[in-house]
Amino acid sequence: MGRKWNNIKEKKASKDKNTSRIYAKFGLEIYVAAKKGEPDPESNRALKVVLERAKTYNVPKAIIDRAIDKAKGSGDENYVELRYEGFGPNGSMVIVDTLTNNVNRTAASVRSAFNKNGGSMGVSGSVAYMFDAAAVFGVEGKSADEVMEVMLESDVDVRDVVEEDDIVIVYAEPDQFHAVQEAFKNIGVTEFTVAELSMIAQNYVELPEDAAAQFEKMIDALEDLEDVQQVYHNVELPE
């Protein structure tokens, strides 16, 4: 389980270094979620999830409000969610989730990022079967036993609860995101170090130093793309 948490930490730390980029990505994701349903998180569960995730990245309220106000307007921008799958050095696996208003542009840029960095695009389903969707929460100041107890009492479908680096990590079924959140409220927890809907690899691999450097370069290239929202992989990267 530690490998899963380490990769989530690595991904979050990487994004924390690029605040303007991550704020822009969240602004788009919030707009799309609000546009699909009511622009009110209490009646739009997808929007509520995005806003909870945005809190863990300290996305400014002004950006959130601007995205929701834009969704309330008469804008006719149409975005689609697309998933690309591919391979990196030494058979490593990558999933790339995108939001785009230009499918051809996105496909070409994702393919280029793979090809220029020792990777290759795969067909749909070639990688995703080796990952499991999960709701992932991280909290400080609580013990794993205390968290597990409240999850069981709240009848939450939890896969695992582990404690690492003074942070308790909860892995649950994706549809349990809000149930986990509500269970935490029962023990006074409303702030999270992590609150994500993630894709967790079933098995992780380590790469030789040169291949690991190339792989990280490929991941950076993918995450730098305007249309890319999330990148998941099965590589155990050094901390």
UniProtKB/TrEMBL annotation:
Xref: SUPFAM superfamilies: YebC-like
Segments traversing the membrane: none
Superkingdom of source: Bacteria
The TACO1/YebC-like second and third domain, residue ranges: 79-235
Keyword entries, A-Z: Cytoplasm, DNA-binding, Transcription, Transcription regulation
Recorded GO MF terms: DNA binding
Main location: cytoplasm
Domain TACO1/YebC-like N-terminal: 3-73
Location relative to the cell: Cytoplasm
Record GO cellular component, one term: cytosol
GO BP of this protein: regulation of DNA-templated transcription
Sequence similarity: Belongs to the TACO1 family. YeeN subfamily.
Name recorded for this polypeptide: Probable transcriptional regulatory protein ET464_05475
